[in-house]
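Q: For a teaching handout, I want to show students what a protein-ligand complex looks like in token form. Below are the inputs, and the small molecule is adenosine-5'-diphosphate. Please produce the holo structure.
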Amino acid sequence: MTTSPTAPEVTTAPLLSAQGLYVTFPGRHGGPRARAVDGVDLDIRPGEIVALVGESGCGKTTLARGLLGLVEPTAGRVTFDGRPLDYSGRSLKAYRKRVQLVLQDPSGSLNPRHTVYDAVAEGLRIHGYGGDERTAVAEALSRAGLRPPERFFLRYPHELSGGQRQRVVIAGALVLEPELLVADEPVASLDASVRGEILALLLRLRTDLGLSALVVTHDLGLAWNIADRVAVMYLGRIVETGAVEQVLTAPRHPYTQALLSVLPEAPGAPVILTGEPPDPSRVPSGCRFHARCQILASGEAEAAGVADACRGQDLEVLGGSGESQVACHWATSLRGAGNRATSHNAPAPGLRGD
Ligand SMILES: Nc1ncnc2c1ncn2[C@@H]1O[C@H](COP(=O)(O)OP(=O)(O)O)[C@@H](O)[C@H]1O
Ligand SMILES: [Mg+2]
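A: Here is the structure, written as tokens, with adenosine-5'-diphosphate included.
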């Protein structure tokens, strides 16, 4: 998985990159604007699979939509293949052929009245494909693991299993031969066994086609099984990023530690986060996590001499590259004092492959 021979070197230029990205939405009832994405740098290199993880409402889907050009950023920019996105109709259409969105089927990606053939051919028709449509559809279905493809052409979504429907959605993305997939919670509603199959499919597409992917998930176990790199998002920002093994076995940010501590495999007591659930229209000053931080609450931040900074000093936006980084006054102070990254609440080694 992360040791795959196709996993890219960190020095490769990014294929897709967000730089200083902000997306805000009008506040409810004239209140303050919601800062859904609040300063994000994120690179995805050719052939790389990056998992974007975080609780519901932290801005994952908005960031994904920003990367796809489906929402125009309030500030910052998105570049693809070295060029900034152009939000005019025609160039956006060309971009959306190269970067495909994969939603989960229960969100209504498939029209119940369209056959599998039409569902997969739709993208070809939108983009005025000049080649042989039937061959392209058959090949995409086959790549997505629906074989022999002809057997599926005239089926309707309700005649298929959940896993097969998700494969049709993936075939619809593959038929345009994209370079990158953005998969927003691709397996959230599937049974565990089917989940594994779909994840294996995504990994095989990377190996066979060199596809890159951003996989958005609230499930850290899924990130562990598929990603080279993970970015942990909290209230609009990436608060920790690095190689998946590093972040998930030696998490440095108290938020990442808390997320991992509630997994069934985790040793020790789960960390129950206190304080208000995060609200993007009221981002706290200082560290945005401080009001819920178990390290600040326990006095450990005070002991490390950083408690005032936690409450009053914002953190820098983390760089988008693959290196290990954390936005936390306390974690940075530990490293500065020559301590190793903490490993409390690290998951048991058996987590991978569950
Ligand atoms: N179109 C929109 N208009 C107003 N607020 C939005 C819109 N889309 C998302 N939000 C708000 O932005 C925040 C992040 O949402 P989202 O990106 O969907 O998070 P996630 O995918 O992590 O659950 C939430 O507070 C959500 O209510
Ligand atoms: Mg979402």
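A: Two things your students might notice: The pocket of magnesium ion (ligand 2) is lined by residues 60-61 (CB under 6 Å). The two ends are 14 Å apart (CA to CA).
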